[in-house]
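Researcher: Here's my situation. A collaborator sent me these components and asked whether they could plausibly form a single complex. I don't have experimental data yet, so a predicted model of the whole assembly would be a useful starting point for our discussion.
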Amino acid sequence: MAKEITNRSEDYSQWYLDIVRKADLADNSAVRGCMVIKPYGFAIWEKMRDQLDAMFKETGHVNAYFPLFIPKSFLSREADHVEGFAKECAVVTHHRLMNNPDGSGVVVDPSAKLEEELVVRPTSETIIWNTYRDWIQSYRDLPLLINQWANVVRWEMRTRPFLRTAEFLWQEGHTAHATREEAMAEARLIHDIYARFAEEYMAMPVLKGSKTPNERFAGADETFTIEALMQDGRALQAGTSHFLGQNFAKAFDVRFLNEENQEEFVWATSWGVSTRLVGGLIMTHSDDEGLVLPPKLAPVQVMIVPIPKPSSEIEEYAGKLMAALRDRGVSVEYDRDDKKRPGFKFAEHEMRGVPVRVGVGMRDIEKGVVEVARRDTKEKSSIPVDGAADYITSLLEEIQANLLQRALDFRADHTSKADDLETFRSLIEDKGGFVYAHWDGTTETELKIKEMTKATIRLLPLEPEADEGRCILTGKPSQYRVPFAKAY
RNA sequence: CGGGGUGUAGCGCAGCCCGGUAGCGCGCGUCGUUCGGGACGACGAGGUCGUGGGUUCAAAUCCCGCCACCCCGACCA
C-alpha cells in the first residue's frame, strides 16, 4: 500500500509533486520559491490550524499580531539569531516606484530610499521582544502567553511545495516567564502538544527529543523537536519548541520586578509549526492513487456518489444518510455533478484523499443498502442503509487508527541500529529511516558524520535507553544511542 | 556560486541533427451515443516556438548574447 522506498529520490520527488498538483492542493506561483495554496489545500491547513489553535487556547494562550516588517537593526541584537537568519532575509529598501524615464514601465524611485531598511520577518522574536519590553514591568505581568498566526519569508536556495517554500504560513508562540523552570515547562508543554497533534490528528508518529547544540534554533538554549519519518526514508522536522533562556530578554532589555522587589530578566520560549505539516501529511500517508487523508483532518470525510448520475430518488435516499451523519458530526457531501461519470468521480475523490466514499444506485436502493469504500485500504462493502451512519462513523475512527498504525509499522520497519561506520553508511544509504548509533557527543563528530553520509542527528532522546557503546566515528565511549537520518 | 539539463497551446511532449513557415496526447467547447471504476465518435477553439541579435531567399531548426525554470551539489532550525 505504502509508497515504496526508492533510492532515486527524483522519482519520489516527482510522486510528491504529482500528488500536490493532482489532489488540487497547490500551484507554483509567479514568484520563485513561493506557492499558491489552492482552496482544497488551504482547507486542510485550516483544519490543522483550528485544532492547534484550540489546543493552545486550552492551555491559556491568546492570539495577537505583530508587524510583517522588522527594522534591520533588531535582527542584530542577538548575535546567534542574526547569524542564523542573515543569509536568507528579504529586505525592503525603498517605499516608492516611479515611471521609468525611458517609458519602459516602472523603476524604484532612488529618492525614496528608507532611512533604516526593513527585513521581512523570517521569524518574529526580535520585533516581539522589542514590544514585550513595554508590556512587562512586574511579575504580575507574567506569564505572557501569546501566539500569532502569520506568514514569514525565508529566502531558501531550494524550495519544494509545502516542505520548504520561500514564504510560508505558520503559528509562532512567544512567551515570557518569571522563572527558568516555568519557561522550560512551557517549552515542554508545547512540545507535548505538537507530538499529540501529530499522532492524534495527523496520524503521523513522531520521535520527541532535543536538538544537538549544532542544530539548535539561533538564539535558543534548548530546542525541542518532533521528527517524523517520510515514506522515502527521510526524516522531517515537523515542529520545534525553544527554551530561549534570557537571551532575548537581555538583547531587548526586558526586565521585571519580582515579588522581592528585585529586578530580573525574564525567561522566554518560542515555538512554531508551519504549512510544512501539510507536506508531512502528504508524504506520510499517500499512495500511488493519490492523497490519503486522516479523517480528523479531511475537509470532506464522506463523499456520496450517485450512480450512474444524480437523481431526485437517489438524493432523497442519500439525504437521510447525510442527515444522520451530520447529526454525528461527520462532514459529508453529495456529488451532484451530472457531467462526470461515476468511475471518473471515484478516481477523483481517491486522488483528493476523501476517507470514505459512499456509492448509491438503483440497485442499492432496491436492496436497501449503500456501497461503502474506504480510501486507506480501498476495500468496498455493501452496508444496510439503516445502520450506515453508525457504521461509517466508526469506520472513520478505524481509518484514523489504521493510518497511525500503518505509519508506526513503517517506522518500526525503517528503524535500525549500527555499531560501525560501514554498517551505518549502508543503512543510511540503502535502507533509509532512523539509524540509532553511538556518538561521542561532540559537534565536530556530528559534522564529520554529516559530511560523510548526509545523515544528521535528528534529536537527543529525552529519556535515553541506557546502552553503553563506542562512537561509530571516534570510538570514544557513549552512554546511549541517538537517531540519525537524512532529513528534508 | 559550481556541474548538468530544459524552455514549442492550459498541462505533458515530438519536431531541431539534415532550414521550407508547427504537430501529437491529455484537457477545453458544441452535438450525438453512452453512464455500477478514469467513455466513444464527429466537428471545433487555442501557439509572439523564452528573449535579443546574427547568418540565409527562407530560422522552432544553424551561430552568438541574455533571461527563466528544473535536477545534482553548495546552502537550509
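Model: Some features of this prediction you could bring to your collaborator: Residues 1-8 of chain A have pLDDT under 50 and may be disordered. The two ends of chain A are 23 Å apart (CA to CA).
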